[in-house]
Design brief:
With 184 residues, this protein is an alpha/beta fold. The protein has a single domain, classed as Maf protein (Alpha-Beta Complex), CATH 3.90.950. The protein is 41% helix and 23% strand. Strands 1, 2, 3, 4, 5 and 6 form a six-stranded mixed sheet that branches. β4 and β5 (104-108) form a beta hairpin. The longest helix has 18 residues, at 52-69. The radius of gyration is 17 Å and the shape is globular. The two termini are 25 Å apart. Its cofactor is Mg(2+); Mn(2+). Pfam families: NTPase_I-T.
Length: 184
């Protein structure tokens, strides 16, 4: 990306996701400026995606829906948090999808396992953010540090976890010559 201003649509009103998206963009493209706009668009999946595939599908849908609402933008970003049972434990992670007018990039965040009490609530149909608030006596943790912030005592927070995945999703956009026209 060159020295210019890009209109970016972030498919969320959650300040954690907005800040992660903007911080990741600035890290990968320090020469560019970004005019962000956040929008609420449907993910097309459950409020609490329960598998990796459903979570990725939600992030892809958010980007597609944001692009439909704002086709004039130059970048669209969707971030979807999800959970999946792995080896009898409940893991949590997020998928990030970034699209410009030419291509799509995607990446998954780091993964960590949740305490059994949280798993039990999620399996009863409680959304992860609500379950965290109940178990850890917090309020609105999903718009703050999230489970990772609570469990690491803010050594890593939700914004930082998502920001790294945003950076990784931007790799194809930062290296267009390698991803758009691969040489045999």
């Amino acid at each position: 990306m060159e020295h210019k201003t890009y209109k970016v649509i972030i498919a969320s009103k959650n300040p954690v996701k907005i800040n992660a998206a903007l911080d990741g963009l600035q890290r990968m493209f320090p020469e560019a400026e970004f005019m962000p706009e956040s929008v609420n668009v449907p993910s097309g999946v459950a409020d609490q995606p329960m598998t990796e595939q459903e979570t990725l599908h939600g992030a892809l849908n958010r980007v597609a829906n944001a692009r439909e609402v704002h086709p004039e933008a130059e970048l669209w970003i969707g971030i979807e948090g999800g959970v999946e049972v792995i080896g009898g434990e409940l893991a949590t992670f997020a998928w990030v999808v970034v699209q410009d007018k030419e291509q799509l990039g995607k990446a998954r965040s780091g993964t960590f396992f949740l305490p059994q009490q949280v798993r039990e609530l999620v399996e009863q149909g409680v959304e992860l953010g609500v379950a965290n608030d109940r178990i850890f006596s917090h309020s609105n943790s999903k718009q703050k540090g999230g489970a990772i912030g609570i469990l690491t005592h803010n050594v890593v927070d939700r914004r930082e976890l998502y920001e790294q995945a945003v950076v990784l999703a931007l790799v194809p956009l930062r290296n267009k010559e390698l991803y758009l026209n691969p040489q045999p």
